[in-house]
Write a structure and sequence with these properties.
Organism: Dryobates pubescens
Structural class: alpha+beta
CATH architecture: 2-Layer Sandwich
Order of helices and strands: HEEHHEE
GO biological process, one term: double-strand break repair
Protein name: Structural maintenance of chromosomes flexible hinge domain-containing protein 1
Oligomer: single chain
Radius of gyration: 15 Å
InterPro entries: HATPase_C_sf (IPR036890), SMCHD1 (IPR038892)
Number of domains: 1
Largest sheet: 2 strands, antiparallel
Strand order of the largest sheet: 1-2
């Protein structure tokens, strides 16, 4: 259901902001103004951001951020699967490398990700259609 897709996107933002020294900010916007384009779901956070390489790695199906090696960047080598907590956003579906992609393409036909790594001045963008994926 849509609720699980949104929960996965929120879970990704929670992961991205877990090391914030200050306030964690996560916003979810449902955009229905057709004068601005097609309806969309926007999830924004003030997390650590992703490089262009990390964005491209995200687009590889069944490539988990926890199991990437070689050319694939990962900073989750010490990941420990969370203890299951009923009705919690501490899911680990992303462990299998399908959570965010399934969520995005359940909600819509394309994904547009814009990210700025915290330590960089560069802004990176990935646009991916369900058909191309």
């Amino acid at each position: 259901p849509a609720a699980f897709a949104l929960a996965e996107l929120i879970d990704n933002s929670l992961s991205a902001t877990c090391r914030n020294a200050g306030v964690r900010s996560i916003q979810i916007k449902l955009l229905f103004d057709e004068s601005q384009g097609k309806p969309a779901v926007a999830v924004m956070d003030n997390g650590r951001g992703m490089t262009s390489k990390q964005l491209n790695n995200w687009a590889v199906y069944r490539l988990s951020k926890f199991t990437r090696q070689g050319d694939f960047e990962s900073d989750h080598s010490s990941y420990v699967r969370p203890v299951p907590v009923p009705r919690s956003l501490n899911s680990d579906i992303s462990y299998f490398g399908v959570g965010g992609k399934q969520a995005v393409f359940f909600v819509g036909q394309s994904a547009r990700m814009i990210s700025k790594p915290a330590e960089s001045q560069d802004v990176h963008e990935l646009v991916l259609s369900k058909e191309d994926f």
